[in-house]
């Protein structure tokens, strides 16, 4: 797995690999509003994880997940971590580790 310098560069590379759906993190599932899709931890796999740290502030930290679902949907989840990290279920936390 190649390491990229920026979040946008990594997202562009993964989109070329077919990760085109945008996922949102909810307490107990991932959600794609455009597809009206909810994925619970047992419904998806994390194929790649990329961490980015802000140069000027620790508040700029983020994680990019490349996600593939059991039904063939592939997409990206961008999540802030640290102070602004979402409150998620233990099952989701384990899956996104």
Question: What topology emerges from the helices and strands here?
Answer:
Elements: H1 7-16, E1 21-22, E2 24-25, E3 30-32, E4 37-39, E5 44-52, E6 62-69, E7 74-80, H2 90-95
Parallel strand pairs: 1-7
Antiparallel strand pairs: 2-3, 3-4, 5-6, 6-7
What can you tell me about this protein's structure?
It is a single chain. The chain is an alpha+beta fold and 97 residues long. The protein is 16% helix and 35% strand. It has helices at residues 7-16, 90-95; strands at 21-22, 24-25, 30-32, 37-39, 44-52, 62-69, 74-80. The longest helix is centred in the N-terminal third of the chain and has 10 residues, at 7-16. The two termini are 17 Å apart.
In short:
This protein has 97 residues and is of the alpha+beta class. It has 2 helices and 7 strands. The strands form 2 sheets. It has a 4-stranded mixed sheet with strand order 1-7-6-5, with helices on one face.
Keywords:
97 residues, alpha+beta, four-stranded mixed β-sheet, 2 helices, 16% helix, 35% strand, globular
User: How would you classify the helix and strand content by structural class?
Assistant: alpha+beta
How much of the sequence lies in strands comes to: 35-45%
Order of helices and strands: HEEEEEEEH
Number of alpha- plus pi-helical segments? 2
């Amino acid at each position: 797995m190649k390491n990229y310098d920026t979040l946008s560069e990594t997202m562009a590379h993964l989109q070329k690999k077919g990760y085109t759906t945008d996922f949102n993190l909810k307490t107990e599932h991932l959600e794609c509003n455009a597809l009206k899709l909810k994925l619970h931890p047992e419904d998806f796999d994390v194929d790649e994880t990329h961490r980015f740290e802000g140069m000027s502030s620790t508040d700029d930290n983020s994680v990019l997940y490349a996600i593939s679902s059991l039904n063939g949907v592939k997409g990206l989840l961008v999540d802030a971590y640290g102070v602004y990290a979402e409150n998620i279920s233990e099952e989701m936390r384990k899956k996104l580790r």
